[in-house]
Fold:
Amino acid sequence: MSVQEINKHTVLPPIISRSDKEFLESMQRYIVTETERVGCNEEGPADEYYIIYRNVFDKVIEYVTAYKCILTSIKKEYDAFIETLKKDRRTTIFLHRRLKVLAAEPTALVYHRKRIIQLEAKMRIIENNSSKIQSQIDKVKELRAEYDTSKIKYTLSRDPSKPIPGMTLQESVNLDALTKYMKHLENKYSEIKQDMLIKYVPAQKKADLDEEMIVLLKRRDVSENLNKVLQFRHQKMQLISYALTSWVKSGMSISFQDFVVHIQKSNILFGEQGIVEEVLEDDPSQAKEAEITLYYIERFNELLALGEYETAAYFAANSPRRILGNIGTMNKLKAVGKLKGKPLPLLIFFEALFVTSHAFRHPVGADLTLEGIKCGLSEKRLDLVINWVTQERLTFCEEAGDVICDYGEQDTYNRAKCLALAQIIYSVCGLHKKVLLCLCKQGQIYGAMEYIQQYKYFTFDDLIQVITLCPQPELIQCLTKEWNGKPPLLSFGLAILHLFSVDMKKVGIKLLQEANKGGKGWSY
Structure:
């Protein structure tokens, strides 16, 4: 056996104690557990990975007391080195980002300069257009000023040194040619003068002719209506004469009324169905009213069945004599409801109905007016309601004003407009207390006082009710003081007692404080 073989077998592994073995196994388990918990399964420069092994190193130093000093020095050097690497890495990232910013600056500068050039070109175009428009405006102003300051005279001024139009130089010095040209001009002048007498008339003459034509058209309409009435009466007399003659020839065995009914059933009178009923009507204009009404109702129902709701609404609103302008039509359109992407058919009906109200003799009824206002407000169309209320062919009621007031309480932005509209309606209806309340709610205290002085319908209870519904200190002060030399309308003490009785103590205390400051002009 050689020496090498002897040395090879004499080398023995180090003997590890049981405590060291347990410590190493616990360190291995700690490393595996912590790396799996933080998700750092692969080796790398992650901070979590470094922190785990730094903790293990600290535990090893604490465990191996014999080598604690040297291991602590080694750990300190490693920590300093790692901290330097981290600092260098942060510096590298910062410099890399800074480099990107510096690299992008020329491109951004180019884009900014290009945008500046575009905006400057657009500004030049706008300035040029503005200068052109301003020059045109100045020119129009100059022409208007010139027209206003002086009268434009159309005079024919011709330079005698210039040649005569239509003649050569030789003809302009030839007497015969000039005489012939003068005769031509005289003929042309006479033709123009004749045309002025025949083809043109003064503006006043045209206005007179228009008025005369209107009078003649009205006379024609009256004559046509009278002609229809006379024709109808003539036909009626002929039919009655024929029926009477036939009744006499038949021996008058039955009454004349039964005989007429028999003729109607047998349909032997002029071969026209229902002619007897028509001629026996008192008003000939109502002879075909039932037929017209039936046609419009059927056509309206047909449009609803076809789904043409907008057309049906316009058709109903524009029906003659408002055949379809009633509550029944409104209920049918209300049943349609809202259509996706289309206006409300009921609102179209009311809008067309109110717009055409001037074309009819009788205004729209109070019930339809109220429903129309409700429909417009439900669709947030206060502009339409304002237009409808200012119309002259509507019938207002107290409920319409109340509806508008309630809408104003909900829509505080348009509260003043709603109160003004309600004031118009209440004024038309003669509801003076509500008109006064609208004035007070609008803050028109002086207008309210003038209204009270103008209409002497207000009792003590009315004024108490007004200050209850609108407890404004300024209003109460005006009511409890002299107004235009007239005594106060309310007693200050009674007004204060009433405010305290209706749980308005704050307003009452405020009035008492102001009365204590003023001290004059109050009626107790």
Notes: The chain has a mean pLDDT of 76. The chain is about 70% helix and 0% strand.
